[in-house]
Design goal:
Elements: E1 2-6, H1 12-16, E2 21-25, H2 32-35, E3 40-43, H3 51-54, E4 61-64, H4 74-79, E5 83-85, H5 92-109, E6 119-123, H6 127-139, E7 142-146, H7 148-153, H8 162-166, E8 170-173, H9 191-196, E9 202-205, H10 214-220, E10 228-231, H11 242-247, E11 250-251, H12 260-278, E12 297-301, H13 306-317, H14 320-332, H15 336-348, E13 360-364, H16 368-377, E14 380-382
Parallel strand pairs: 1-2, 1-3, 3-4, 4-5, 6-7, 6-8, 8-9, 9-10, 10-11, 12-13, 13-14
The chain binds nicotinamide-adenine-dinucleotide and 4-phospho-D-erythronate (DEZ).
C-alpha cells in the first residue's frame, strides 16, 4: 500500500510505517503526478484536494491532519466513494491558548486594571469557540457568543446576535470558511462590518483568512479611527500583503494551532481513522511520542497576585509577541518575491510549543482565587 503524505505531517513513520510505504511530498506543490499510484493520501491545510488532484489516481482514503476542511472538496470525494477523515478539535486548545496570550498582552497595552474587564465576542462556537467561551466564562469575562447554525439546532442555548458579538471590546473569529449554505462565512467581516468597529476594539482572526475581506480591512486600517487587529490567518496566504501587515498590531503565520499536542493529535486522529477504514487495530498513541515539556512546572507562593501570576504563567508558556517579532523579521523584511516561501519556512521550522495543560502550577499555600484562575486557564494544578 502506498501512502502519499505531506512532508510536514509530524511522526509519519511512527504512526504509518507499519501500514504502508510512505512517500513524502511537499503539501504546497503536490500534483496529480505525485498521487497517481497512491492508495492513501494524507494532507494538511495547504493542499487543495479535489477532482483535479485525484481523478487519475486510485486513492481510496484521504485524511487531513487539520481541523479546517475548506481545502478539501468533500462532496466530490463522497461522489467518488473516497473515504475522508479530518481531525476535529485536534489543535483547539492551542488556538485558545493563543487567544488568551493575545488578551493578556492587549489588556496590558490598554493599561487595564484587570483583563477580565474586557468583553469578548466569540463568532463561531464549535471546537475552538466553545472551549474559549468556557475558559473565559470561568475567568469571569463578559462574553457574547454568536453561532447561527448552532442556534438553529439549539434555540434554547442563549446565543447572542452577531451585532452583540461585534459590539464587544474584543471580537474573535472561530468559524470555518464557507461559501454556500444559510450562513456562509466568506467575507463575514466585510467593509460595512469593519467600518462599525472602533479604535477601542480589537479584532482577532485565527479562523481562515477569507473570513475577513482583507482588502477592505487594509483600507479600514488606514482610517484614523481604525480598530486594532491581530491576524494569524491571511487571505491568499502564504502571500501576505505588506500594506495590510504594516497596519496590523500583531501578526503570525497561521500558527495559532501549532502546539505539539495539536500537531501530533492531528496525525493520531487520521491514523485512527485510517486503521478503522482498513480494519486494522489501533496500536499507536500520541502519548508514546510526546517528550516532557521544556517548562514542566511553575511555582507561586501565597503572596502571588492572581492576575499577575496568570499573566506570568501564560506568557512563560506562550507569548504571542515572540511569534509576531519573528514574523516581522523573517517574513516581512524580505523582498516581496521571497515572503511566501519564508511564511511557509517559518511554519515548517516552528519551534516546539506546548499547551498550558502541559505545565504544572504549584501553589504553595495558594489562595482559592489563584486555584480558580489556573484551573480556568487549564494549567495542571499541583497543590
Ligand atoms: N489558525 C489556526 O491555526 C487554526 C487552528 C484550528 C482551526 N482553525 C480554523 O478555525 C475554524 C474553527 O475551528 P473549530 O474547530 O472551532 O471548527 P468547528 O467546525 O468545530 O466550529 C465552527 C463553528 O462555527 C459555526 N459557524 C458556521 N458558520 C457560522 C457563521 N456564519 N457565523 C457564526 N458561526 C458560524 C459552526 O456552527 C460551528 O459551531 C476552523 O474551521 C479552522 O478553519 C485555525
Ligand atoms: O485547520 C487547522 O487545523 C489549522 O488551521 C492548522 O493549524 C493548519 O495547519 P497546516 O495544515 O496549514 O499546517
Amino acid at each position: 500500500m502506498l501512502i502519499v503524505a505531506d512532508e510536514n505531517i509530524p511522526l509519519l513513520d511512527q504512526f504509518f510505517e507499519e501500514i504502508g510505504t510512505i512517500r513524502r511530498v511537499s503539501g504546497r506543490t503536490m500534483t496529480s503526478a505525485d498521487v497517481r499510484d497512491a492508495d492513501v493520501l494524507l494532507v494538511r491545510s495547504v493542499t487543495r484536494v479535489d477532482r483535479q488532484l485525484l481523478e487519475d489516481s486510485r486513492v481510496k482514503f484521504v485524511g487531513t491532519a487539520t481541523i479546517g476542511t475548506d481545502h478539501v472538496d468533500v462532496a466530490w470525494l463522497e461522489s467518488q466513494g473516497i473515504a475522508f477523515a479530518c481531525a476535529p478539535g485536534c489543535n483547539a486548545a492551542s488556538v485558545v491558548d493563543y487567544v488568551l496570550s493575545v488578551l493578556s498582552v492587549y489588556a496590558e497595552k490598554r493599561a487595564m486594571e484587570g483583563w477580565t474587564d474586557l468583553s469578548v465576542g466569540i463568532v463561531g462556537a464549535g471546537n475552538v469557540g466553545r472551549r474559549l467561551a468556557t475558559r473565559l466564562d470561568k475567568l469571569g469575562f463578559d462574553i457574547k457568543v454568536n453561532d447561527p447554525p448552532r442556534e438553529a439546532e439549539e434555540p434554547d442555548e442563549g446565543f447572542d446576535s452577531l451585532e452583540d458579538a461585534l459590539g464587544c471590546d474584543v471580537v474573535t473569529l472561530h468559524t470555518p470558511l464557507t461559501r454556500y449554505g444559510n450562513h456562509p462565512t466568506r467575507h463575514l467581516m466585510n467593509a460595512e462590518r469593519l467600518r462599525r468597529l472602533n479604535p477601542s476594539q480589537l479584532l482577532i482572526n485565527t479562523s481562515r483568512g477569507g473570513v475577513v475581506d482583507c482588502e477592505a480591512l487594509s483600507s479600514r486600517l488606514a482610517d484614523a479611527d481604525a480598530p486594532q487587529v491581530v491576524l494569524d490567518v491571511w487571505e491568499g496566504e502564504p502571500q501576505v500583503s505588506a500594506e495590510l501587515a504594516s497596519r496590523v498590531w500583531l501578526m503570525t503565520p497561521h500558527i495559532a494551532g501549532y502546539s505539539l499536542e495539536g500537531k501530533v493529535g492531528g496525525t493520531e486522529m487520521i491514523y485512527q481513522s485510517l486503521c478503522h477504514f482498513l480494519g486494522l487495530p489501533v496500536r499507536k498513541k500520541s502519548g508514546q511520542f510526546m517528550a516532557d515539556p521544556a517548562l514542566s512546572k511553575l511555582s507561586f507562593t501565597s503572596s502571588a497576585n492572581a492576575r499577575d501570576a496568570a499573566q506570568l504563567a501564560i506568557r512563560a508558556c506562550y507569548d504571542v509577541r515572540r511569534d509576531d517579532s519573528r514574523f516581522r523579521r523573517w517574513v516581512l523584511e524580505l523582498p516581496e518575491g521571497e515572503r511566501a516561501a519564508a511564511f511557509d519556512a517559518m511554519r515548517r521550522d516552528y519551534p516546539v510549543r506546548r499547551e498550558f495543560s502541559s505545565t504544572k502550577i504549584q501553589l504553595k499555600g495558594g489562595a482559592k482565587e489563584l486555584q480558580q484562575v489556573f484551573k480556568a486557564l487549564e494549567f495542571k494544578l499541583k497543590l
